[in-house]
Design brief:
By secondary structure, the protein is an all-alpha fold. It contains 19 helices and three strands. Helix content is about 75%, strand content about 0%.
Length: about 550
Amino acid sequence: MSGTTTAAVGRHRRAAGAGADRWVVLVVLCVSLLLVALDATVLHVAVPAVTEDLRPGAVELLWIVDVYPLVCASLLILFGTLGDRIGRRRVLLLGYGLFGIASALAAFAWSAPMLVLARALLGAGGAMIMPATLSILRQVFPDRRERALAIGVWSAVAAVGAAVGPLLGGFLLEHFWWGSVFLVNIPLMLVSLPVGRMLLPESRGTDGGPWDVTGALLAAGGLFGTVLGVKRLGGGEAASPLTVLPLLAGVALLFLFVRRQRRHPHPLVELRMFTRPAFGTSVGCIVLAMLALVGLELVAAQYLQLVLGLSPLQTGLRLLPLTVAAMAAGLAGARVLRRFGPRRMVCAGFCLTAAAVLTLTAMGGTDDPPLLLAGFVLLGFGLETTLFGAYESMLSEAPAGQAGGAAAIGETSYQLGAGIGIALLGSVMNAAYAPGLRSVPGVPRSAADAAGHSLGEAYEVSGRLGGGAGAALRRAARDSFVHGLHVTLLVSAGLLLLGAVLALRLPWVMQCGEEPGGAEVELPAPREAEPAAGKPRVTA
């Protein structure tokens, strides 16, 4: 390489986080995250319109809704570790492109299988984007105090995206056809690609060695089978071979993946990270927080609408304080972490969330807006405090060269915790709900058994029965659902208190300051000329 070329390359390489560039990078990363978070929930309100237009079968409709989070969770480790090897910005930009193409395919899908395929591609694009945003953030903010603030902004944006998704979808459906909920992604992707190429830094692990393709495929297959099996368990399909076989195959593949990583000279995931108390404990806290909190879905989707009779828009407005509280907790998280340290912050977050869940056990068959407001505010603030402290501790404890893999582990634990929670708490809910319908006067046993599947089905059965028996079944189903919800929330509170005990293994004090090297970082060239003397490659 000539001296001129060497100097030119040197001018392009600067320390990560220099000047104000790191805050511009944070804005770009937050826009990326916002798109993925929006797409995870924006389809929910469009399901009736999709059903009317494409006429999918029951299985096809299930895959249209579930294939996006399923594929995304399965590929997080694959693409997170690939970014550590070939460059995190490169994987992020590829994710932008795939996300835009898949959005166009979904918007103009002419059949249910086509929409399933497009949603799967969207999941793959999301799996490229999610860990890349967090691992790049890890590199451009080497100082832990600034990184904590950046993670707070990042997590607040995630909360906004999840909440805005249904509202944006509802607005688009009022004015356009259902495909518009996907089409809105394309102009944002067209802007993000060139802006990301110009502004985002490139970084990769320095000593990762060749990428273990076999290990990556084992992880992807194992996670796919495990998450699919867990989702079907949550849907009450425990005895089905389509539940048992994927679950067993997924667990077996994950076992082979772990064994391979322990023996491989250049593992995808450095399992020794889990021997560090802060890292392993943080991952466990993320899993427990999500496992306990999926009961919120029961509150949002069924209690508010089926028990209280609120419309979808009214339900969204009732949940808005939860999102606002989560945003506030994310933005205040850095200051709280510096003052109280990871142990007290995460432990207090778990306790506050448990208090919120216990508050919500006072819900009954009639609307109580002040109670719901208090419960949702406590829930949003407590949950975000817990997740913020756990994510920040996990990411800061991981070596810089393993940032992509660590980010993927965090996101995967989030998805697995939610899936296991749906299966576990769904089983608790069904066990507490169904017995209350077996002795309703005037209701045949077959009708009672059908009504015991869900509250929505109980309302359908009561409508077919009509008369006094139908009214009695409807009242019994509502009362049984509220009882089951109380039991489920109590179990959730117990899991959250278990998380508070687990958090006692986290460090007392937040260790601040810049950290040692471990990842190559290369920022795009500035527009203005810099001194001719090239600077060597630096580490973050």
